[in-house]
Known about the structure:
Oligomer: heterotrimer
Shape of chain A: globular
Number of strands of chain A: 5
Strand content of chain A: 15-25%
Distance between the termini of chain B: 15 Å
Radius of gyration of chain B: 15 Å
Largest sheet of chain B: 7 strands, antiparallel
Strand content of chain B: 35-45%
Low-confidence stretches of chain B: 148-187
Number of helices of chain B: 4
Order of helices and strands of chain A: EEHEEEHHHH
Order of helices and strands of chain B: EHHEEEEEEHH
Helix content of chain B: 25-40%
Shape of chain B: globular
Mean pLDDT of chain B: 78
Helix content of chain A: 25-40%
Distance between the termini of chain A: 44 Å
Amino acid sequence: xxxxxxxxxxxxxxxxxxxxxxxxxxxxxxxxxxxxxxxxxxxxxxxxxxxxxxxxxxxxxxxxxxxxxxxxxxxxxxxxxxxxxxxxxxxxxxxxxxxxxxxxxxxxxxxxxxxxxxxxxxxxxxxxxxxxxxxxxxxxxxxxxxxxxxx
Amino acid sequence: xxxxxxxxxxxxxxxxxxxxxxxxxxxxxxxxxxxxxxxxxxxxxxxxxxxxxxxxxxxxxxxxxxxxxxxxxxxxxxxxxxxxxxxxxxxxxxxxxxxxxxxxxxxxxxxxxxxxxxxxxxxxxxxxxxxxxxxxxxxxxxxxxxxxxxxxxxxxxxxxxxxxxxxxxxxxxxxxxxxxxxxxxxx
Amino acid sequence: xxxxxxxxxxxxxxxxxxxxxxxxxxxxxxxxxxxxxxxxxxxxxxxxxxxxxxxxxxxxxxxxxxxxxxxxxxxxxxxxxxxxxxxxxxxxxxxxxxxxxxxxxxxxxxxxxxxxxxxxxxxxxxxxxxxxxxxxxxxxxxxxxxxxxxxxxxxxxxxxxxxxxxxxxxxxxxxxxxxxxxxxxxxxxxxxxxxxxxxxxxxxxxxxxxxxxxxxxxxxxxxxxxxxxxxxxxxxxxxxxxxxxxxxxxxxxxxxxxxxxxxxxxxxxxxxxxxxxxxxxxxxxxxxxxxxxxxxxxxxxxxxxxxxxxxxxxxxxxxxxxxxxxxxxxxxxxxxxxxxxxxxxxxxxxxxxxxxxxxxxxxxxxxxxxxxxxxxxxxxxxxxxxxxxxxxxxxxxxxxxxxxxxxxxxxxxxxxxxxxxxxxxxxxxxxxxxxxxxxxxxxxxxxxxxxxxxxxxxxxxxxxxxxxxxxxxxxxxxxxxxxxxxxxxxxxxxxxxxxxxxxxxxxxxxxxxxxxxxxxxxxxxxxxxxxxxxxxxxxxxxxxxxxxxxxxxxxxxxxxxxxxxxxxxxxxxxxxxxxxxxxxxxxxxxxxxxxxxxxxxxxxxxxxxxxxxxxxxxxxxxxxxxxxxxxxxxxxxxxxxxxxxxxxxxxxxxxxxxxxxxxxxxxxxxxxxxxxxxxxxxxxxxxxxxxxxxxxxxxxxxxxxxxxxxxxxxxxxxxxxxxxxxxxxxxxxxxxxxxxxxxxxxxxxxxxxxxxxxxxxxxxxxxxxxxxxxxxxxxxxxxxxxxxxxxxxxxxxxxxxxx
Lengths: 151, 187, 803
């Protein structure tokens, strides 16, 4: 089936089988490999992308189901080579180690801060409570959320 | 690699013997056989198109039928090459009549080289056996006057053959056996 | 120039991870053929038949392999990587099952197809006929040995091993007090967010194999592939891309797929890739931790341990590719910072029909710490003494360093502690957590109807085991510094910390330093990343290599500047004569001068051509010299260096629901000199989180048939942010290691080691019920309360009856 995905503002026309997951389509058809797959069943959050601005698990969506929608992946967060406040805060706070889960956190927090630009620490923790990280123990990710909100 | 198998053909042994050595029958019944030309007594040159899985290719080579002991046994030696690889095979074929039908048994020993030689023995053997089965089914149809169901035109239900699904088969003349073997290689 | 060593600078590798620019294994090889494995659904069975006919019609199918397709060394069992004299019955699997499968998930056939979807289509159409055999699941079943995992291994015992010093029987028999304990730890697993994966490309023209793998050892894998595929080592390259966490599981090599995928790439002449899925990772990678322990201890009135006798049983799963490392680590590292008067430890390493057990962060230490710390807590409870005081009474003192137990550590070297100040560490911890004022906290909580408890646990961790690592440092004519080391990186920030070392050693801006790890093309001699060894081993080797380069740079510069090397310094990448501004030469220029040229290709290189430099009476490159401004060196320690630390936790247990909440978590950590405190703290944070998982949530729930019941992230409960402590208080102590040029010790595993012990200590303190098995869930704690209540009731009744 032919679908049009608008990813980070760029339209892509792509021919995919109906069963192709959005995560696989992004990664292997469009070769935007910043979106990672950690569990394939929507639990870890590594594959989180923004669909019309809202965070979704791309491993739980079929590519054909998002025909025509706007998708933001981690590749679309920086502008003109400048890191977004969330990305910068992760760098400043040592919010990543192996970096595999990081894109899912970045997209999740980007959307979260749009909704709640000035979170309390509790709200910051709530914001990332659906994403798994095996390296950092989350301490510095929470710090990064707070810092991104108040750079 | 060694492969053995058998088939029942619903015709008396003499008719089977004739059919299996008749290029006009073989060219119709060998899965994927594009052409087959006699080059001498019992010797043929042939071209077969086959696919094993999604590896498709056209193979061309020679087939020799020899050591015939009518109507009970003969041997086939074949070798062929195509872009996906090469094959050489020796096949012993035995015929015996049971209640007006013919029981055919074969033992093939094949050497498969090139990429097609790397697809795994079970897959090669599986494709070979299936190709042989298709070949025998087609020969049987030819013998009994049924329309050929060899799968060129339409695949039998449940088999969903790709064009190559007929796998290559066949090689040759004796089609079946060899065919079988080939089939596998094209994988 | 700011000193880089010790500075908490931000990581230099972060940008590519933050922008989607990193390259993990599955981000490579988009055009490669994909692999799916047919895996055993049985824990123990004979493979009767494999029928692939049903798969042949799958469009996109390329190849199917079974054991019969394996030839030569590949048809033999996988390597037993670490043999040991006590491992009398070591067994390893075949890359594809030959005639028997010994755990759910064991690979039986491999499908190659155009993409993973199609490969899975084909794999599920392959019909394997099994004849199920009785499964041996769990340590008790293995010990009873009613059934055998391997017919030729009596009693399911792969190894029995004892180490001891002193007369432990006499010491316990004559001790004023004695206790015995039974202590259990269940299975968990590394569970990195990125699963395993391997990509192979065969170059038909040059007969060379290039492999990318998400491995913790590129060089080890390279050697294994060459040996198993019958290739010359020179014709095999292994490259580690970015790796999404390892935590031990990726040190195992070669995984079946790491051989099968290269085999297929060679057979098919096309790139082939395997990316493990999450469900596979649970049943086809490795687990750790499961052990049962029995302790007999004798002690005096102050709680000093006079004799300690530990017997334990280690469940190593279906095979023993990694030898006895985990139980040996338990048996030696159990001692922690203490010095029992006499000690004996004996273990059986047992087969079960479950996934293999190989090191997971901590590697046997969490179990050892659990056993020792539970024992010390039990002694304190028995004597009515402060738990911290009993620990102090047993500590090895700083003036006793180096302290040699007379035992053999996991590296075959003496268990000899090089340095550490345990009393000081404990002092810091007590302050950090408020140990001495906790009774007031407890009373205040009790007044509110709340139940709180405090626990502490200590550990010593042998880090930086040999045999060696190497480093290569090259200064290019641009002045840029290229550094390579062979071990691999899974998120530890090596591109930052190694650059910090080099920047200081050479006197160059860190922005000019680039570090490559885990690429056999760049550095072919290495061991791997495990046992908290990267900073110690490669850090030291790189420092030594940089010193060689510095020496040569000064020598060449001294010639050019007509100065004495003693009078030179290197600042910001420029060699200059101290106190003589203007007499200076950039390192890039020194690099030019150090490589005599016949051909000039730019302005800089004109300065090095044959008519410009050198004494015409001498060879352009002296007999004992080499062209180029580069250095290579190796670091090989006499034995491990021993880091240590102590954790304390305050928990609150819900009187009704038995939920366990973390109120405070404190860590004092001594890994010698800190190269980058920010990164060390990150390691501790991550370790603590994994420790919380291991203590309170994570377990591998096998049923009696050997089926893993919780093989997904929905059911295997890895901590989210909601499960980890809100804040971890960390303090450092730096007792430098005398064993290496940097004075460093490993830090990677520390955070996870005392977790089970410290939580057990705190929960026991809150509840007043002995905690002897970890992890512990709220429902298990609830059960313990019920049992304890009815036991109290029974004993009250019993004593009433007596009356």
